[in-house]
Amino acid sequence: MILINLLPHREAARKRKREAFYATLGLSALAGGVISGAIFLWYAAQISDQQAKNTVLSSEIKRLEGQIKDIASLQQEIAGLRARQQAVEDLQADRNMPVYLLNELVSQLPDGVYITSLKQDNQSVSLLGVAQSNERVSELLRNLGNNSPWLTRPELVEIVAGTVALSPRDQRRVANFNIRVRLMRASEAQKAAAPAGAASAPAAAAPAKT
User: What is the crossing angle of helices 186-205 and 9-94, to 10°?
Assistant: First the structure.
């Protein structure tokens, strides 16, 4: 017996393929949605974690900025205290500056040089005097510039030839001079003396060559 299938089997096959395609498409869309949701949640968690870290960092930065401001204000206060301390020490040392000046002038004046006037303005000292010759004035300048720990930078302002009457018949030619010199403070003299002492110590400690 011959069996003949008169049903539309082609349409039924196409329908089954179409239904399988839609099912696969639905499953793919569902899987894509699940994966996308998981990725979104992961990124959201990462962003939330980074935002929390940023908040902590911002608070730490603000705290450190406050500490830096406090340190800067403390440094300014320390600098102000040191400046006031130095000013007080300079004032105390300046009280003895006239004594140092007179002692140095007595020790540095060569023979034949006489001081007739002395004027001090802060650390600048003007010396007016009489010398037997120009060479005596040069010697005084060398002494003030090289041999005194308290006097520095001597400057010859003026030198004028003159005469001095020792008696009615005895007149001597002299040199009237005007010298300006700087009187150092105690702190400056100590700083200037420290390198000189350090330089002389190795020379004294070095053994003599035979």
Answer: 90
Over residues 12-31, the pLDDT tens digits come to: 778 888 888 888 888 888 88
Low-confidence ranges of the chain (pLDDT < 50): 199-210
CA nearest neighbour of 126 among 183, 56, 201? 183
Count CB neighbours of 100 within 10 A.
19
For residue 130, which of 113, 154, 148 has the smallest C-alpha distance?
113
DSSP string, 172-197: EEEEEEEEEEEEPPHHHHHHHHHHHH
Q: Are 162 and 178 in contact (CB under 8 A)?
A: no
Amino acid 132 reads Q
| Type of residue found at 115 | I
Supply angle C-alpha 68, 74, 76, rounded to 5.
Answer: 105
Residues ≥6 apart with Cβ < 8 Å to 161: 173, 174, 175, 176
DSSP three-state, residue 52? helix
